Amino acid sequence: xxxxxxxxxxxxxxxxxxxxxxxxxxxxxxxxxxxxxxxxxxxxxxxxxxxxxxxxxxxxxxxxxxxxxxxxxxxxxxxxxxxxxxxxxxxxxxxxxxxxxxxxxxxxxxxxxxxxxxxxxxxxxxxxxxxxxxxxxxxxxxxxxxxxxxxxxxxxxxxxxxxxxxxxxxxxxxxxxxxxxxxxxxxxxxxxxxxxxxxxxxxxxxxxxxxxxxxxxxxxxxxxxxxxxxxxxxxxxxxxx
Length: 241
Known about the structure:
There is one protein chain. The protein has 241 residues and is of the alpha/beta class. It has a single domain (2-238), classed as Bira Bifunctional Protein, Domain 2 (BirA Bifunctional Protein, domain 2). Helix content is 28%, strand content 29%. The mean pLDDT is 93.
């Protein structure tokens, strides 16, 4: 099996959500795990699908000029102004995709922790929920704003405990997507951020049993990308909670 490693791309906030959606739902062949690291044209914040826009706006500095977008995955408010962002899709039928959400999350973050260690940053993976969810023993209580505290199986600085990496998940009939973010200031000992993609995809491939292979950008239909971008930019999408 091959892990498709797509080229790095910059895009606006809404377009990044559109591309991630297509990576999950419309990927040609649909049977290989795929990975992309990406950036943001302008300062941006993203927030989880189930979060209320009023809560998000209350957390923001009104003087900041940022793009704001609702993700189609879960999780809390994420600041992308100084982060390293990625999306990983594990297709339906893969052993890791079939696991519970907490287990697939753990496996990916253990691979990420191994990559960060190789690049010079001492880390650990959190094993227990700091704030358990009383209705679900396998989950943690919602943080609301990402990077304010670490949740179970997040990656943190080995010495300070500062949260370095978290992710949000979404499942469909096509598989599982993880939209992940690493907060660069919390990982000051990383020697070379340019090496994170090849190092992470290598450690990840060992757990997915898939060979990492640089892969050309998929031939997504341009009209569909534009339509989805407009959807994720629309007031209806932003205000639906």
